[in-house]
Each structure stands twice: as structure tokens, then as C-alpha cells.
Amino acid sequence: MSLVEIKQVTKDYQIGEVSVRALKDIELDIEKQSFVSFVGPSGSGKTTLLNLIGCLDKPSSGEVFVNGTPVNSFSNKEAAQFRGQHLGFIFQNFNLLPVLTTYENVEYPLIMVQNIPVGKRKERIMHYLEAVGMTDQKDKYPSQLSGGQKQRVAVARALVTDPKLVLADEPTANLDHATAFKVIKLMKQMQENLKTTFIFSTHDPKVVKEAEIIYTLEDGKLVDK
Amino acid sequence: MTSMLIIIGVVMVVVFSGVSVSFKSMMIGSITDSMLGHLQIHKKGYVSSIDNLPLHLNINEKGIKQLENIFEKHNDVIEAFSYRIKFGAMLSNFQETTNIRLTAVQPQMENAACPRLVERINGDIQDPDKFIEQGKIIIPENLANGLNLKSGDEVVLVANNKDGSVNGLSLKVSNVIEGIMGPSGRDGFIHINDAKTLLRINGEEINEVAIRLKNPDNLNGMNKLIANELSQFENKQNMPVFELHTWADLSPFSTIAAIVDLLIITIKMVLIAIVLISILNVMMMSVYERVNEIGTISAIGTLPSKILWLFMAEGFSLAIISTIVGNIIGVLAIFFINIAKFHFSFGRMKNILLETSIAPSEIISVSLIVIFIAVISSLQPALKASRMQPVDALRHV
Q1: Mean pLDDT for chain A?
Q2: Which residue is closest to A109 within chain B, CA to CA?
């Protein structure tokens, strides 16, 4: 069974009185433990597709299955529960909580989402901080970290809950090329070590080479695999 | 800034409540303990014609016996009672004559019912239970000044008894008493036996009973209890024999007390407005400034209910901390007001020491109001945060 199944998905946005079709009849399957990239120019529908897979948005028509579960019928609460248990997110702007330290940012989903007891939390957090090379920076606040370091923390935060799938929307867009390459390498390494599925979107052709499977989108249509 | 506003509001309420409630209690205590007692019993219809000080509405021996039985039955709640005969008379110093209102009392009973009466009498009172002796009169201050009377001077009282005949009695001025509320006081005191002689009353007869309760805080409860007891006595026309009034029914200060209560409520309303607007404002801003963060925590799986509680907790914490700090500062302010020993005058009462205090129940009520309002005002922004769609919130810049 595929980890992600997308069947005839269409997504329309209503902008004022105008309806804009962001995705058109998307059909794709993503297997477990794969390292997948959605590529395409801005406005091609990469983020919309990731949002549908990530239960952040609902399709206008069609069906989305993640881990065998039809996610398009979820209520807000069910979607949040599903995301907390099965998905990890990495954002273009890192989206670390500015009032929390590196350690606390990684700890947040374990406390607020998975209710992991304090004893088990520390070991797990330190394991992931070590995996992304941020142990020494654990007491620093996001404002004291570089872009690459922030994204490493974001990778640790996404992985600390042991998700089946990590979704990364343009994770390298705000990084210089060298740092972007390192972050993608880190994600690839995590995917190999943890057997977690990664889906990331990018329009950077150098970064996309690291992906095992590349889906190309144009004007909301899947044009190439 | 928000905390500061709430702290200032709480301090304002605590200090104002402390000062005004203490002032009110002091004034009420002064009135009840030196003049009215907590409750008064008269013959039905007496209070409506009290300005005339009628003698035909006296309570006779049978009525006194009935009242004594009630007092005996409820001696667990009644601390003391005093029989009085109030009447109007002419007072002469043999050169000038003026009118005077007299309260004739049995001094031991009066001192038990109104223990602070003797504080208002100028001069040395050796035994408060004998503050007025037979053959003597305590003159109100303004009459003493007007007629140039002093202790030891002889005066004559002339009064009509209830049959209309005029009688006179020669008395010696023992002391001078201050008017309690203002310069117009014309109330003097004589011994009840002298009143009986002057008014030609044979046997026991009174027209007022002042009652002092053991627990004045339960005034309304006691009022109902005794009114119920009194209702069993009816005259031949099946009308009640007695009427019962609280001090508030008889004193104009009850209006001032009501105004003080109204002011406290107004101040509390201002506090509520401060807390409501401050917390609503800060929470709205907090939600608006953190839309992206709300999107992030929602995306990584935080339940909407937890987001709601996160924001509610923020408003609640703000209120709790501000309330605690405000209460501490307020109580300290009251403490320092007491140390500073402020004095003030009210009516004829001079140099009154302002002894402020705040009841724990008042602090609790202020705290509960602030916390309740904080929770209410946090609710709308918290609901807004919890209902945000993560996909929209993440797009917010």
C-alpha cells in the first residue's frame, strides 16, 4: 500500500468573484521511505499539493489518502490529531517559536501534541539534536541562530515525533546554496537512517537532484514524474 | 502596560473600599452605639409623628411586659435594650427660655444599649452606668452655649404631660453633650424617673426601646425575627400594637451609607471596564501578532482546544499576577494610611482617626471579579486563535 494516494484531486480557490484552479486532476502515489520532490515554478501548485497531503487544506474534488486514511473528510480536530501523530512539517521560513530555545522548540510537539512524559522526552530530543548537529546550540533562541541552523532545528522538530511522513515546503528557499545543499543532505540522511518518507517542494534545480522521485507541476497539472 | 493598568485598578478598588467601608462602618457604629441602637421599637404610628414627640403613643406596663418576654426569649441575639421616654420641653435658665428635646433614660440600660454615648458627653464621667443622675440634666452643646450654661447651673424644665397640663421641674446641669451630626442638635438627657415626675407618669411607661444586637451584621435577619415576634400583638381593631425600625430607617446617614456603597460599586465597574478593555486589547494584539505562530503550532498537530487554552491561560495569568500584585500594594497602602494616622472631621465629630481596614471577603471579591472578567475578555481572542485554519495562518506575513 502506498503511503500517499492522490486520486483525481482538484483544488479551486475563490479570489473575490473569480475562481482559480490551483490543481487539476492530480493523480499520484508515493511509496513509504521514499525521498520525493515536487518541482515547478511559483504558482504551479506545489504548496497546494503539500497542504492537501498535510491535512492543512481540503481538495475541491477527488480523494487524498495518507497511510490508508482518507484525510479530506477530517474535521479540524481530527486533522490536527492526524498531523500530530503521523506527519512532520518543515517550513520555508523555519517557523520556529521565537520565545522558545532550540531545545524547547524540539520539545514542543512532544509536550503539546504527543504528551510524552518528561523522562522520555529529554533522551529523544537530545538524540535528534545530535542527529542534526545542534546539540551545542540547544540553549540558544532562534534569533541567535543562522538560517541553516534554524532549518536544522526545524528538521529535528519535524522528526522528533517519529512521523511516517515529513512534508517540507521550499525548505531551502531562504538559504544560500551551500547551506541549502547541506539541509537537503541532512534530510536525505535522516530519511535513510529513520526510514521516514520525505516530500519536499523546490524550484531549485541543484537541490532537486538529491530527490529519488521528482514530480513536476505546471499550472496545477502534474506533467512529469 | 496592561498589567500596570490592572494593578492600578485593583489598588484603587482595595484602597477606596478600605477607606470608604471603614469610614461608613465607623459612622454607622458611632450612630448606633451612641444614639440609635441597632433596632428601635415604638408603639404603632409613633415614628410617623416622631417630630412632635407625642406622649399619647406611649407603651404601657402591659406592653413593656410583652416586650420583655421577647427580649428574654432572644437574649442569645440581643445584647442590651434601653427604655426611653422622649419628649419636648421648655428649658429656662431663669433669664431666657428655649425649647429642648429630651431623652429620659435609665442610665445603666442606656449605657449597655449605646455604650459610646458617654464619649460624646463633655466632662469627667466616673461611672458610665451612672452618666445621668436623678435631679440632673445633660444639656446639648449649642443650648449650653446659647444660654451660657455650665455644669452645676440650675435650670427649669417645663413640659406638657399627655393630658395637656403644664408641669415644671428644677434640675442641675451635670454635663454638656455634643451633637452627633451637626450644629442643630437640641437633644438633652435626663433620668427616666425625673421624666416620670415631670410628665406625671405613674407606673411604667415609655415611648421608645433601643436595642443593641450581639451581631449587627445580621441586622436584617434580627429585624425579621423580632418583627415576627411583635406581629403577634394586636389591638382591639386587630392592628399591630408595635412597630420596629432599624437604625437605617431612622437615620439620614443611611442615605450617605447607600451613596458610599454606590461609589464602591461604581469604582468596581471602572475596574471591570479597565480589565475588560485592557485584556481584550492585549489578547487581540497577541493573537494578531502571532497568527503565523498559531499556524505553525496548529500545523504540527496542536489541537484547537489546546490553542484555546494557551490563550486563555495567558489572559488568566495576566489577571492573576496583576491581581496579586494589586492586592499586595493595596493592602500595603491601607497599612501605611493607618501608620500615617490621618484625622478628619465629620459634622460635630472632630479629629476622628481614619482607621482603615479591608475585609478578606472584599479582597476575594475584587480578585474574583478581575479574574472572571479576564477570562471572559480572553475568550473571544482565544476562540479566534483556536478557529484559525492553519493553511491561512501560515500564509499570514
Answers
A1: 88
A2: B300
